[in-house]
Amino acid sequence: MGHRISDIASALDAEAVGDISIEVDGAAEPASAGPEHLALAMSPKFAEGLAAGHARAAMIADGMDWQALGLEGAIIVKRPRFAMSGLTQALDAGPIIHDGIHPTAVIEAGAQIGEGAAIGPFVVIGQGVRIGGNARIAAHSSIAEGAEIGEDALILSGVRIGARVQIGDRVIIQPGAVIGGDGFSFVTPEKSQVEAARESLGKEDAAVAPQSWTRIHSLGTVVIGDDVEIGANAAIDRGTVANTEIGSGTKIDNLVHIGHNCRIGRDCLLCGQVGFAGSALLGDRVVLGGQCGVSDNIEIGSDVVAAGATKIYSNLGPAGGPCGSGWAMRCLG
User: Fold this and answer.
1) Which of 3, 37, 140, 260 is catalytic?
2) What is the pTM of this model?
3) In the chain, which ranges are continuous DSSP H helix?
4) In the annotation, is 217 catalytic?
5) Per CATH, is 3-91 categorized as 3.40.1390.10?
6) What is the pLDDT of residues 149-176, one digit of tens each?
């Protein structure tokens, strides 16, 4: 279905100029855009590609001359990357998950499925699960007993949600993520070599003796707020006794691991391959670049920004303190 550029501009609170009746059915880079596309030419660098393509209309930045670029129509935006959010939302067809419950789905007794929810092929829903209204669960996902999923959630193919996990409204979980697996908690009958090494900071040689590890079971679960997104193959472990918690609005990239008992604040951004050891506490609006590592039992204050591959071994004090809010430059690298 085509979209008139006047309608797109209205949805983006942007200005449409030229022939605003032009219809497009998708977006494309300028050099590969056809007449049916809205070219994304929001900087002079990208606009150079318009000459190689065949777009009639483009989205451009404020101050660019659409007529000099040879366009018939244009959408002018003040903050191009932010406008991309609204544009992609308008053009994204999303996954196809047919309404209702697929006949191959297995739903245990006592599960409650909210009005308008869609359950795809080969989904398994355990006893006592509650699925909110208009939630969509894609093929081959499994939701264990007692879990709760909020309204308008989107659970994509192959997601595994453990027992008693609580997930808020409008949460998006990408394929293959595992929420609520057991924490990695093991102990030895006597003091372990790891404990001895940590106490001496490696300055003393610990006696080497045979040791075996005994499991500490995970009695807690995972609690996820509203508007959280979790990337493909991410893993969030359940708590040992208390719960692992993810604050509302936080976005978690592919292959991120969050260990048992961690508490992640609101509106954080955790990029690919970030790893948390157990019981780490994260404030609000923290950004961790790809492959950052966070040690166990430490606290990172709000508004910290750490560049990719940063390793954090000690507290970065409370927000507003000397190591908290605005402390980004001391964490980089």
Assistant:
1) 260
2) 0.91
3) 5-11, 44-47, 80-91, 193-200, 328-331
4) no
5) yes
6) 999 999 999 999 999 999 999 999 999 9
